[in-house]
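QA checklist item 7 of 12: single-chain prediction sanity check.
[x] sequence parsed
[x] length recorded as 471
[x] structure emitted
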Amino acid sequence: MKFFKKKSFESVKDAGGTSGLDRTLDSLDLILLGLGGIVGTGVFALTGMVAAQYAGPAVTISYIIAGVTCIFVALVYTELATMLPTSGSVYTYSYVAFGEMVAWLVGSALIIELCFSASAVAGSWSAYVQGIFESAGAPLPKMLTNSPFEGGIVNLPAFLIVVFVGCMLYRGTKESKKLNNILVFIKMAAIFIFIFFAAPHFDAANWENFMPNGFDDVLYGSSILFFAFTGFGTLASAAEECKDPKRNLTIGIIGSLVLATIVYVVVAAVLTGIVPFGDLDNAQPLAYALKQTGNGIGSTLVATGAVAGMTTVIMMNIYGQSRIFYVIARDGLLPKSLAKLHHKYDSPYMTILVFTTLIAVMGALIPYGILAQLSSMGALVDYMVVAVVVMMFRIQKPDVERPFKCPIVFVIAPLALMASFYLLFKQIISKHGEMLLTGKIFIYWFIIMFVLYVMKSSLFSAKEQIDNAAD
């Protein structure tokens, strides 16, 4: 078994340079793709839930903590992405640093981060669509808009939006890029509409109980809100489709994350200032809050923008997931058939089909709340691995060209590592010392993935022995 077999820098760069993927993305495209992948369910749905259940108006602080941690992570992420541009993202970085087994487990963490995220966003997208139809006096049947866990049969809108996005990605980066840019403009316009209409109704009395459950719940809220930032990491998976990966990735990753953090904090501040935070525990908090101020038109416009915004998040998650697993298949850890590119669209169509199907089924059958928490946990594992790898490479490979160097890396990387570990711990163990449901699922997931890796390695080893004996 080759648990610790590593890939070399040179082989990764050679594979990335001859991948066959079409290089069509520039810096602006990456910023828009980043905003497309980041700004979505976090701001349009989770802000209300975290404010109502945990942080109160201090959800603004939760966003700042999560955002600053992610900016630290983005600095180290950008160093790795520009020195080793590959669509394998953190999977490939861990393959070079630690070997095959760790890379396999990191790949499984990326399924939790991106696949579960897209499914959760699809569920939230469905809730906003249902709200729009209800406002128009034509409510959709509950049996076809709720998962079995919520008293329905299937969440059909969630299923259909994932299939639509998958079809767009199947047609290649050029087509999906155009749709993403249009939808990003719509959702950012919706956010500014919300701020414009809501700001005059800000009431400082709603902030009197600023931190109702203490700072511990503010930190727990931060750990959940990492879900709202997971999109920036997928930009690293676009490396093999950038015109100038070194420059484009630096601007795209850091630029989109800083802009998203500012938007989140402002929206959270305005939202908790116009209605009592206890009223925000619903699937459409921004639209609900505007409706409470008597602005029905603004509420509808925001809901429409939310639908557009969450569509781009689903798109970027499937995009990143399909590229990463295209590389995993190219490396031989999955069947080579998954590493095929479409003869016309140059898209990794097999991995797009696989993950579109998986995400559509999960979105149709599982409530979004638990999927969102698990996704943020997967992202935190991703960030911890990146922080460790960048420090290892600084020590082991000091002479490798680094187009972007993380400043004071041995301060920023440890801070990112410790913050990510602490926030992950908060989602595994409750403040009463009990293991949470999400923690159990998370641990069992990695145990299962490790067993699958051992089984796969054993089968491959046995096959090699049989082939050698036959020769």
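[x] summary fact logged: The chain has 16 helices and no strands.
[ ] second reviewer sign-off
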